[in-house]
Automatic annotation (TrEMBL):
Protein name: Cell division protein FtsA
Protein family according to the UniProt entry: Belongs to the FtsA/MreB family.
SMART domains hit by this protein: FtsA
Domain Cyclic nucleotide-binding span(s) in chain numbering: 48-89
GO (cellular component) term, any one: cell division site
Primary location class: membrane
Organism this protein belongs to: Amaricoccus macauensis
Gene3D superfamilies referenced in this protein's UniProt entry, alphabetically: 3.30.420.40
Amino acid sequence: MRRQLYEVQRAMRARRETALRRGVIAILDIGTSKVACLVLQFVPEEVGEDGDTRPVLSQGAFRVIGAANTRSRGIAFGEIEAMEECERAVRTAIQGAQKMAGFRVDHVIVSFSGGRPRSYGCTGEVEVEHGAVAERDVGHVLAACDIPDYGHDRDALHALPVNFCLDDRSGLTDPRGQVGRMLAVDMHLVTVASGPLRNILHCIRRCDLELGGIVVSSYASGLASLTEDEQELGSACIDIGAGVTGLSVFLRRQMIYADSVRMGGAHITSDIGHGLQVSLPDAERLKTMHGGLIATGLDDRDMIELPSILGDWEHDRRQISRSELIGVMRPRVEEILEEVRARLDASGFEYLPSQRIVLTGGSAQIPGLESVASRVLGRQCRIGKPHRVQGLPQSATGTAFSTAVGLSMHVSHPQDECWDFETPADRQGARRVTRALRWFKENW
């Protein structure tokens, strides 16, 4: 594993721990259509035998004391294209949440939906040094993983140990303290393009904030939208945002695959604008108020008044039926779902026991999406709203806020990653590409 990247991730985790000790941290969801910010408050409790006081990292150990969101500016496909505009939007969201909370926030954890995430399955094996598996042994086996040569233009964002094997026992989530001779691990590595990621980091620095972590948006959305049974038995979360549709696959409560499609709700809006010759704000209004994906006989008679292009309501009045609007929207939605299906097929999703699919994100609210997705993807689908968290405003409980809520749950109950363990610098592992999800196909 690249040592510089390892140290950067370790530094971010140290800043996160500092913020949690203070009891307040901010969540920042930088999306194509909106920038949302939540301020979380943790209550310190005594833990450990050394008298150390720090917040308990468990779900339900926090409450939302501040929330704000604003329209995104300078962001396309989940990536920054105008730094000044993006900085202004981030500052607006942060200041609004701080004002509501009554606290100044210095540390943030950010979601990232751009960068074209890619998944790799990595394996490693070492001999246990002193009979029982210790923290050092876990660090050694993670350092021994075969890291693929993913290129200098990409950075590793997540390195998640998803399965441990101790001698002949597989399926272990935490082998520490158990007695054995040979310890092996299957690690899920997620990489993203370096340029868009560094732009996000630079924007956070320009806003005078300390970065305590960065998370792939589809990962956070899955944590918020999937039930515990769905995460355990194997399910996919499809986060249909404005510019990007994120995909994450979970099994045994671990994310084992991540990908994205660079299309979303904004492309549906654009199709309406071009097809009906209306402005984008009017197209968004038509999609929100009258849009749908399944036409009935009644929709042929349900007429919609189109806004005038020239502003002359007397001589430029136009009407369309709701069926015509549905006919403009449905092809783009089916195209997005076809791309998602191709990525699910590449992930080995058909080998999972459950194969449930949960749709979330702002564009998941389009009427009829559940039925169309079930037909295109060939599997049972449902619309997934984020889990309830204490203090969350009613306006932030819809599918559009799944990523923000998932980030909150990730902070309160973080999964161990490679960077959380001390790894020897002289054990970097061989550089060869291993097939994603190979551990699952060999062991299940």
